[in-house]
């Protein structure tokens, strides 16, 4: 059983916030899904290596040479707020908010 | 022109003989899409510049088989200068400054990008209902879902808007909508096609593939876009065969394995009836059919939802409202900007997956969920490969039921996840897999799933082609479109 506190902790890790009105339904849905996933514990995997990656190539090397991709202007085209060709964001270090 | 009756080859002949121009084909496709759009909602963005691009191809002269052929792209494939949203509010205004390798390769072969098709948000879903831009509707029954997540691509092909469309498949997102729409769809081997420029969902499972009415058309498109790409180190260096030229419907001596677990108790009886009929047809063609067992299949959904959600939670960290996409207003600091942009920008299903993944990767849950699922994945891969040691193909139904009603499962995530049980295995094991129409159940299309050995797409195409030539399902017109044209 996943508790509401656990869900709120995971939400904080994921940079997500839920309205009070939606938390309970999320908790019960996630609880059902995690419960389904917990059935994995019944499988004996002693000595089995995990598979994290697919694909048949390993480390790929290329010559250490500069390549041209996008220009600075192109890369800034999608930025919601810019100032002087820089990305503008709100305060990063805030005295009132020292978390 | 009725595209439903055309193939890439027949259109190519008409282009070469100047019965039609590429520009006319592009305009035709756009008109058809616009006429259907209110009813079907297959596209998020139609490419208004397509006729112009096609005109240039006319001027330069029709060359290879794809020259001047309009093709649709799922809207999680980035396209330089054409809005790419992944059907999410968080990317509602995203205008890529480069194109995915698959798009570049198909355009280099002369294909015309006709626009971007609808999908479940970030390809997370089996019904196209989680799209920020409304659901797509099934052309066989307007009250039903087209499947997902490549539901827009599948419905666009079934409705004759395009002969072929690209999709992506992480847990069945090409095969399930192909089955629901009565068309062919193939997810190639993991690593066969570059993922560069494809908006990532679960990087160890995602693969780009093709949907088309005819098997031979997907074969043509896959050959043109597959192969190594220096931008994607997981893309294979194995040479790409000419799948279309090598197509053969000779099934004699082909060894087909049928996992008894695919004959799921919850599966619609008419789905099984159609699949059994297809297997009988293969036997008549000289193939052998053996029953086999995949004991770990019962855990496939569990493994998949742990791994896919974990990879998604990691891949989707990049959406923070800073560099592109939706940015929340009225924020007091940078942390607030992240949290508000993500909470307002992602839909419920995406949030659910991010939460599941973050949980599975968190301290305390990592070993019991993420690592455990990765271990069971290994067991499952071994089981599949064992079966393929003495069989050429694995077959079964693509889905447990035909297309379900819009709204039927959208509030029950677990029921929605169970939809994927038959398609997930090929993703977990990285194997090539396709769905080919097998018949109708209650008037709705049923797909036969064909899974092959790694990099043996050819055998998958061949078996699908043999069935297509036997049942000629492509002659059937989607019920809701009858009386048109």
From TrEMBL, chain A:
Gene Ontology biological-process annotations: glutaminyl-tRNAGln biosynthesis via transamidation; regulation of translational fidelity; translation
Keyword Ligase (UniProt): yes
Keywords: ATP-binding, Ligase, Nucleotide-binding, Protein biosynthesis, Transferase
GO molecular function: asparaginyl-tRNA synthase (glutamine-hydrolyzing) activity; ATP binding; glutaminyl-tRNA synthase (glutamine-hydrolyzing) activity; transferase activity
A Pfam family it matches: GatC
Catalyses which reaction(s): L-aspartyl-tRNA(Asn) + L-glutamine + ATP + H2O = L-asparaginyl-tRNA(Asn) + L-glutamate + ADP + phosphate + 2 H(+); L-glutamyl-tRNA(Gln) + L-glutamine + ATP + H2O = L-glutaminyl-tRNA(Gln) + L-glutamate + ADP + phosphate + H(+)
Superkingdom of source: Bacteria
EC number: 6.3.5.-
Subunit description: Heterotrimer of A, B and C subunits.
Family, as annotated: Belongs to the GatC family.
NCBIfam families linked: gatC (TIGR00135)
Task of the protein: Allows the formation of correctly charged Asn-tRNA(Asn) or Gln-tRNA(Gln) through the transamidation of misacylated Asp-tRNA(Asn) or Glu-tRNA(Gln) in organisms which lack either or both of asparaginyl-tRNA or glutaminyl-tRNA synthetases. The reaction takes place in the presence of glutamine and ATP through an activated phospho-Asp-tRNA(Asn) or phospho-Glu-tRNA(Gln).
Protein name: Aspartyl/glutamyl-tRNA(Asn/Gln) amidotransferase subunit C
Source organism (scientific name): Companilactobacillus bobalius DSM 19674
Automatic annotation (TrEMBL), chain B:
Catalytic activity line of the entry: L-glutamyl-tRNA(Gln) + L-glutamine + ATP + H2O = L-glutaminyl-tRNA(Gln) + L-glutamate + ADP + phosphate + H(+)
EC number, UniProt record: 6.3.5.7
Protein's job: Allows the formation of correctly charged Gln-tRNA(Gln) through the transamidation of misacylated Glu-tRNA(Gln) in organisms which lack glutaminyl-tRNA synthetase. The reaction takes place in the presence of glutamine and ATP through an activated gamma-phospho-Glu-tRNA(Gln).
GO biological process, one term: translation
HAMAP family: GatA
Annotated protein name in UniProt: Glutamyl-tRNA(Gln) amidotransferase subunit A
GO molecular function: ATP binding; glutaminyl-tRNA synthase (glutamine-hydrolyzing) activity; transferase activity
């Amino acid at each position: 059983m996943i508790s509401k506190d656990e869900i709120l902790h995971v939400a904080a890790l994921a940079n997500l916030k839920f309205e009070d009105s939606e938390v309970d339904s999320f908790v019960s849905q996630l609880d059902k899904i995690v419960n389904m996933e917990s059935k994995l514990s019944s499988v004996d995997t002693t000595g089995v290596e995990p598979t994290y990656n697919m694909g048949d190539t390993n480390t790929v090397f290329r010559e250490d040479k500069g390549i041209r991709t996008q220009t600075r202007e192109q890369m800034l085209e999608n930025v919601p707020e810019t100032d002087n060709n820089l990305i503008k964001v709100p305060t990063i270090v805030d005295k009132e908010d020292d978390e | 022109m009725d595209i439903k009756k055309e193939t890439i080859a027949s259109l190519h002949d008409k282009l070469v003989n100047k019965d039609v121009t590429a520009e006319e084909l592009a305009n035709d496709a756009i008109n058809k899409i616009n006429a259907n759009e209110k009813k079907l909602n297959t596209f998020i963005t139609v490419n208004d510049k397509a006729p112009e691009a096609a005109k240039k191809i006319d001027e330069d002269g029709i060359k290879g088989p794809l020259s001047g052929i309009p093709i649709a792209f799922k809207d999680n494939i980035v396209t330089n200068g054409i809005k790419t949203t992944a059907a999410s509010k968080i990317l509602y205004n995203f205008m890529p400054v480069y194109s995915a390798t698959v798009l570049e390769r198909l355009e280099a072969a002369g294909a015309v990008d006709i626009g971007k098709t609808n999908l479940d948000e970030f390809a997370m879903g089996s019904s196209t209902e989680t799209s920020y831009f409304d659901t797509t509707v099934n052309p066989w029954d307007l009250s039903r879902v087209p499947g997902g997540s490549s539901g827009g691509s599948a419905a666009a092909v079934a409705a004759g808007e395009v002969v072929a469309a690209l999709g992506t498949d992480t847990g069945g997102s090409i095969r399930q909508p192909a089955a629901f729409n009565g068309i062919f769809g193939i997810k190639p081997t993991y690593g066969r096609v570059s993922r560069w420029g494809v908006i990532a969902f679960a990087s160890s499972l995602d693969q780009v593939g093709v949907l088309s009415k005819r098997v031979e058309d997907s074969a043509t498109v896959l050959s043109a876009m597959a192969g190594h790409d220096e931008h994607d180190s997981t893309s294979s260096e194995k040479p790409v065969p000419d799948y279309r030229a090598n197509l053969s419907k000779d099934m004699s001596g082909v060894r087909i394995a049928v996992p008894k677990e695919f004959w799921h108790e919850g599966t619609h009886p008419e789905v099984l009836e159609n699949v059994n009929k297809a297997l009988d047809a293969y036997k008549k063609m000289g193939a052998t059919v053996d029953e086999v067992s995949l004991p770990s299949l019962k855990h496939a959904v569990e493994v998949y939802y742990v791994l896919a959600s974990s990879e998604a939670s990691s891949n989707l960290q990049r959406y923070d409202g800073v560099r592109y996409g939706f940015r929340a207003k009225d924020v007091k600091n940078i942390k607030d900007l992240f949290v508000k942009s993500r909470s307002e920008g992602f839909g419920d299903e995406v949030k659910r997956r991010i939460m599941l993944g973050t949980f599975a990767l968190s301290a305390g849950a990592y070993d019991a969920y993420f690592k455990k699922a990765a271990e069971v994945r290994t067991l499952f891969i071994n089981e599949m490969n064992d079966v393929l040691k003495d069989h050429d193909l694995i077959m079964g139904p693509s889905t447990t039921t035909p297309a379900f009603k819009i709204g039927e499962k959208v509030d029950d995530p677990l029921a929605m996840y169970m939809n994927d049980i038959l398609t997930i295995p090929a993703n977990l094991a990285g194997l090539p897999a396709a769905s080919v129409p097998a018949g109708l159940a209650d008037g709705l299309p049923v797909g036969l799933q064909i899974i092959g050995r790694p990099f043996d797409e050819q055998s998958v195409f061949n078996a699908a082609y043999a069935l297509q030539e036997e049942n000629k399902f492509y002659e059937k017109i989607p019920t809701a479109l009858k009386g048109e044209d």
